[in-house]
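Researcher: Sequence recovery benchmark, item below. Answer with residues only.
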C-alpha cells in the first residue's frame, strides 16, 4: 500500500485511524511503565547484587591480605616468601575448593605453632585435602595435625601419616572427624608421655567411640587410664602386686606398638578374672574403669579389626581425597 493511499483513506474516514492511534498511545505508555519496572528489577536483582558481590569480594581480598601481613609480622614468615606462599595458597584453593582466606588462617595457626613456612605448607596441604574429603574444617584438622607432630616429634610422624591414621579412625569409629579433633587434646599428651603410638591411640579412641558415642567422653576415660599408670598411687601398686604385675610392666606394654592399650586391658582382665571391684582398685576412677570395660565388652574380633585397620592405613587420606567427584571440587 502506498503512503498516498493511506493518507486518502484517513481523510475520508478518520475514526479507525484515531482509535488505532489511541491504542498505540496506550501501548507506548504500557511499554514505558514496563521498562521502568524492568529497570527497577534489574537494579534490585542484578545491579545491587553485583555491587554487593564486589563489596564482599573486596572485603575478602582485604581480609586475605591482612592475614598474609600477619604471617610476616606475627608468625615469622619472611617477606621474600610471601608472594610464593600466596600463589601456593591460591593453587591449593583451586585444587581443593577451600577458600583462600580459610587456608591462610589455617596456615597462620600452623606457622604460629612453631613450623617453618615449608613445613606449615605441607601441613596445610594435607589438612585442606582432608577437609575437602569431609573430615571437618581445614583449621580444625590443621590444628590436630600440628599438635600430633609437635607432641610425637617431627622425626617420628609427619602430616600425611597423621592424616592417614585420623582418616582410618573416623572410618572405623562412630564419631565425626570434628569430634575426634576436639577430643584428642584431652589424651594425646599422656599417650605420648607413655610412648603409646598414634596408631594405637587413635584405634583405641575409635573403638571407644562405638560404645560411648562421644569421642570426648571416651578420651577423658582413656586419659584417666594413662595417668593412673604414669603416676600410680600406693593403692594402685598394691592392687597390681596382688596379681604379680606392676605399673612399669604395663607401661612397657603400652609403649610396644605390637601391644598397646588393648593388650594391657586384656591382661588386667585376665589377671583379675573380670572382677570389677578388684580392677577398680587399680584405677580408682569410675571414668577410667568405664572406659576399660567399654573396650573389653566389645567383640574381640571387631576390636582387633579396628586396631588393625587403623594401623594399616597408609594412603587412606589420599584415597579419600581421590574419591571426590571432579565436579564437586
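Model:
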Amino acid at each position: 500500500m502506498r503512503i498516498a493511499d493511506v493518507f486518502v483513506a484517513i481523510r475520508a474516514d478518520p475514526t479507525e485511524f484515531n482509535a488505532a492511534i489511541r491504542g498505540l498511545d496506550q501501548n507506548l505508555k504500557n511499554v514505558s511503565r514496563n521498562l521502568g519496572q524492568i529497570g527497577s528489577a534489574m537494579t534490585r536483582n542484578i545491579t545491587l547484587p553485583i555491587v554487593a558481590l564486589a563489596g564482599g569480594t573486596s572485603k575478602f581480598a582485604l581480609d586475605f591480605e591482612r592475614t598474609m601481613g600477619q604471617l610476616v609480622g606475627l608468625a615469622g614468615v619472611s617477606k621474600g616468601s610471601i608472594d610464593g606462599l600466596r600463589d601456593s595458597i591460591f593453587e591449593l584453593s583451586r585444587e581443593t575448593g577451600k577458600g583462600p582466606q580459610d587456608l591462610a588462617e589455617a596456615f597462620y595457626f600452623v606457622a604460629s605453632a612453631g613450623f617453618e613456612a615449608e613445613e606449615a605448607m605441607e601441613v596445610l596441604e594435607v589438612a585442606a585435602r582432608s577437609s575437602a574429603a569431609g573430615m571437618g574444617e581445614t583449621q580444625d584438622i590443621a590444628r590436630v595435625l600440628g599438635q600430633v607432630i609437635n607432641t610425637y616429634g617431627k622425626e617420628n610422624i609427619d602430616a600425611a601419616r597423621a592424616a592417614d591414621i585420623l582418616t582410618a579412625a573416623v572410618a572405623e569409629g562412630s564419631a565425626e572427624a570434628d569430634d575426634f579433633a576436639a577430643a584428642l587434646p584431652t589424651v594425646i599428651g599422656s599417650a605420648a608421655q607413655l610412648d603409646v603410638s598414634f596408631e594405637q591411640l587413635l584405634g583405641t579412641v575409635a573403638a571407644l567411640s562405638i560404645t560411648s558415642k562421644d569421642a570426648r567422653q571416651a578420651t577423658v576415660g582413656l586419659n584417666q587410664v594413662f595417668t593412673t599408670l604414669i603416676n600410680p598411687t600406693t593403692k594402685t601398686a598394691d592392687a597390681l602386686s596382688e596379681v604379680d604385675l606392676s605399673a612399669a610392666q604395663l607401661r612397657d606394654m603400652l609403649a610396644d606398638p605390637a601391644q598397646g592399650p588393648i593388650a594391657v586391658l586384656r591382661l588386667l582382665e585376665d589377671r583379675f578374672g573380670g572382677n570389677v571391684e578388684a580392677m577398680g582398685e587399680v584405677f580408682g576412677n569410675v571414668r577410667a574403669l568405664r572406659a576399660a570395660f567399654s573396650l573389653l565388652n566389645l567383640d574381640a574380633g571387631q576390636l582387633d579389626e579396628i586396631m588393625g585397620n587403623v594401623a594399616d592405613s597408609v594412603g587412606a587420606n589420599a584415597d579419600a581425597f581421590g574419591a571426590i567427584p571432579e565436579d564437586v571440587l
